[in-house]
Amino acid sequence: MEDKISIKRIDTYKDKRFTQKILNQHGCFLVNDIPVEIEIISEFEAIIHGVDSMFYSELIEEFRFYTPHITCFYDEKGYKIKEYSRNQIITLKLNDIQPSQFYVDEDKVAAIDKFIQKPEDIIIPVLPYKERYISLDGHTRLYYAVSMGWDHIRAVIDSSNEWVYKFADEAIKRGITVPSDLILVDHDEYEEKWNQFCDDFFKEFE
After folding, report:
1. 187 within 8 A of 106, measured Cβ to Cβ
2. Gyration radius (Cα) of the chain, Å
């Protein structure tokens, strides 16, 4: 009988169960309700802390959904667990990016200031789209880049499910066609509006 696994990504910068540095990297997860950290140590490498090796594969796949530029993983003793082909990191102008989200959480934007110092610190996954690119993740970082007056960030080309095109189309309908159009809201409003949209969307999409 196979062990069941439940993986939940921690999508906040405040959680006393985790190291602040790794919360800032969005590398914190609950694996079967046990805190686990994936520490990014370079542009393409990371160390996995606090999980049984039987869960490595599922955890790495979940992590790489958000950070496909990380391609080499080690355990806490320094042994290499898994390595993928390196993804090319490209530089994109912000105005060439089509958001697939509408809102950003002001608490998350404020937290970013503690660990992003320059445009090159931002690497997001994107998908080619109508001579532009859809942002698959990293909308808070995109908004922060706009607020800093930066005109570019870095990205890796990735793939996604069909639903991301519908998210992008919905964003366009709402007048959100570049990162500067993203709407800043407080945490409670973000949780209410974005989570409700996602819940309603996936019910209809299914």
Report:
1. yes
2. 17
Residue 19: how many CB atoms within 10 A of its CB?
Answer: 15
- Which residues have C-beta within 8 Å of that of residue 72, sequence separation ≥ 6? 44, 45, 46, 80, 82, 83, 84
pLDDT digits (tens, 9 = 90+) for 4-38: 789 999 988 889 999 999 998 889 999 999 999 99
CATH number of the CATH domain containing 169: 3.90.1530.10
Question: For residue 183, is it within any domain?
Answer: yes
- Do 41 and 95 belong to one domain? no
First-residue to last-residue Cα distance in the chain: 30
Q: Which two tokens stand for residue 5?
A: 């696994």
Q: pTM for the whole thing? A: 0.86
Q: How far apart are alpha carbons 71 and 83 in whole angstroms? A: 6
Tell me how far apart the alpha carbons of residues 100 and 167 are, in angstroms, rounded to a whole number. Answer: 5
Boundary residue ending a domain (34, 54, 83): 83
Total domains in the fold of the chain: 2
Question: Which is nearest to 91 in space by CA: 149, 33, 133?
Answer: 133
pLDDT tens column, 159-180: 888 889 999 999 999 999 999 9
Nearest to residue 162, comparing CAs of 197, 202, 199? 202
Picking from 64, 83, 102, the residue at the C-terminal end of a domain is 83
Q: Does 1 reside within a domain? A: no
Q: How far is CA 43 from the centre of its chain?
A: 15
